[in-house]
Design a protein that fits this description.
Pfam families: DAO (PF01266)
Protein name: FAD dependent oxidoreductase domain-containing protein
Cofactor: FAD
Radius of gyration: 21 Å
Keywords: FAD, Flavoprotein, Oxidoreductase
Order of helices and strands: EHEHEHEEEHEEEEEHE
Number of helices: 5
Helix content: 10-25%
Shape: elongated
Number of strands: 12
Largest sheet: 6 strands, antiparallel
Family: Belongs to the MSOX/MTOX family.
Length: 239
């Protein structure tokens, strides 16, 4: 969803069209017939990816780990890496032992640069804390996944030019996940010191305006961290 003539919305729409993703375009006139309990602003349009869905992170991780183990991989839980030495054979040291490999994939998220210090590499990464907010339905089931309420992204709105996104009530019964796709820089070892709530204020205004079936006060606030120079994935090699 987003202003019909805005660059951010048209980029999404044109990308879907270019990649031949099955989609339906909804206008302000017919939007509520297909997606109730959401107010689409005047001048906004929506494009529906009819093949979209939700990946459950816990199930996805379990599936990847299971496949990894089937292929001979070994998972070492609670074994902190203390050093990485690049070379023709990469040496990885932990509190429990030393390992060697032809290559290493580092997926340490917010702690990436601290670990990369041992390799002589540093990436232009910024770690930001995201407030993950869940909002209570006024009428239970209105935004439920079983009612086929969709995931959504607002590319920009009157509250902000940053994305606002949401998922149907599912993870917590009766609570809808609606979040702001931007946060504030934080220390990954002390994320609770970052207490800025300006993003929650933006979400409250958006929910009051566009999601009238939700109580505009978060029922649950959790947190996560983004680690990237931009909202894209970054990767490098150690070999």
């Amino acid at each position: 969803m987003g202003p019909e003539n805005s660059q951010s919305y048209q980029l999404v729409k044109n990308t879907m069209r270019r990649n031949k993703i099955p989609m339906v375009v909804l206008t302000h006139d017919n939007f509520s017939q297909h997606i109730p309990h959401v107010n689409l602003a005047d001048g906004d349009e929506a494009v529906v990816d009819i093949s979209a869905g939700v990946l459950y992170a816990d199930r996805a991780l379990k599936a990847v780990q299971g496949q990894f183990q089937k292929l001979g991989g070994v998972i070492r839980d609670n074994e902190m890496v203390t050093d990485i030495k690049p070379g023709p054979v990469v040496t990885v040291s932990t509190y429990a032992g030393v390992y060697w490999a032809k290559s290493v994939v580092i997926t340490t998220g917010p702690w990436a640069n601290r670990l990369l210090t041992h390799t002589g590499l540093q990436l232009p990464l910024e770690v930001v804390k995201i407030n993950v907010c869940y909002w209570k339905e006024k009428v239970p089931g209105s935004y439920d996944v079983n009612q086929r309420f969709p995931c959504f992204i607002l590319t920009q709105g009157e509250e902000s030019k940053e994305h606002i996104y949401g998922l149907p009530s599912n993870e917590y019964p009766g609570l809808v996940k609606v979040c702001y796709h931007k946060g504030n820089e934080t220390d990954p070892d002390q994320p609770d010191k970052q207490t800025d709530r300006s993003d929650i204020d933006i979400l409250q205004r958006y929910i009051t305006r566009c999601l009238p079936g939700l109580i505009p006060e978060p029922a649950v606030v959790e947190s996560c961290m983004y680690t990237s120079p931009l909202p894209v994935c970054a990767a490098t090699r150690t070999n």
